[in-house]
Amino acid sequence: MTEIFKMFKITTAESEKIMQSVNEPHAHDFEELIIGNKGQLEHFIDFQSKLIDAPFISFVTQGKIHRAKPLIKNGDCDMWVLRFKSEFIAETTFSLYASFHDKANISLQSNQCFEKLDTICKIIFDEYEQEAPDLAVIKQLLSALFTIIESERRKLNLDNDESKKIQSSTFKNFLRLLEEHYKESKDVNFYAEKLFMTSRNLNNICQSILQQSVSEIIETRKLTEAKNLLMTTDKNIAEIGYELGFNEKTYFTHAFKRKAGMTPTEFREEMKRLLS
Fold first, then answer.
1. Which end is more exposed in the chain, N or C (fewer Cβ atoms within 10 Å of the end residue's Cβ)?
2. Tens digit of pLDDT for each residue in 100-131?
3. Per the confidence metrics, is the pTM higher than 0.70?
4. In Å, how far are 73, 87, 93, 230 from 90, measured between CA atoms?
C-alpha cells in the first residue's frame, strides 16, 4: 500500500467477489482495522482459523500473517475496512503485543458501542471521499475509534490491566530492539545494556507484563517468525533454523516442539490442512 490511509466498505456483492478470488494467507506492510456490522468473518490469524459473527472488531498488525474471508449471513454483509501506515497514528496497545498475544478479534456485546464506531466510520469515510481529504481530521477520528475500542476491551476484561502495564517505556523500547535483533544470537545482557539497565531489572519488567523472562520472549519471537516462514516459504527446516540464529537443526526442532507442541514439519503439514 502506497497511501498512508485507505478505507473501503465490504458489501454483500463485494463479499461474493472476494469469495471467488484467490485469497492466500499474507502479511501487510500496513495496519488494518475491520469493523463488522453484518455478516461473518472467517479469519485465519495467530495460526488458527476462527469464525466471528457481527458485530465484531478485528485488528491486524503490520507483518502478522492472516487471511480474512468476509461472509454473508442472513443474506447480508456490511463491514468497514480501514488501512493505515503505522506512523499515521500513535502506537496502540494492539500493535505492541503483535507477536506475543492472540487478541486480534473482539466480539462486541454492546450495540451502543458499535453504533458509536459505525458513526465515526461514516464521518471518516465522508472525509476520505473528498477531493482533498484532510488527513489531520481522519487521524483524530481514527484515534477516537481506538480509544472507544480500548474502552470496550477493558469492559470485557480482555487484557487484565495490560493497557496500564504497557505504558512502561522500557518495555516498549525492549520490543523495538527485539524487532531489530531477534534473528541474531543476542542474549539478555545485550538488550539490558542497550536499555542502560541490569538484566535482572529487565527480566522483572518482562515478567510483570508478559509473565515471561527476556529469554522466553526472545524465543517466542523467533518461533513466531519460524511459523511464518514455514507457512509462506519452501525453505527447509535447517535453513529456517539457521536464519533465526539456531546453528543446529536438532536444537531448532527441539525448541520449536517445546513451544508449539509439534515439530516444524508437523506444523507445516497442519497449516496446509487447515488452509486447504
1. C
2. 455 667 787 667 788 899 999 999 999 999 99
3. yes
4. 35, 7, 10, 32
d(Cα 94, Cα 45) in Å, to the nearest integer? 14
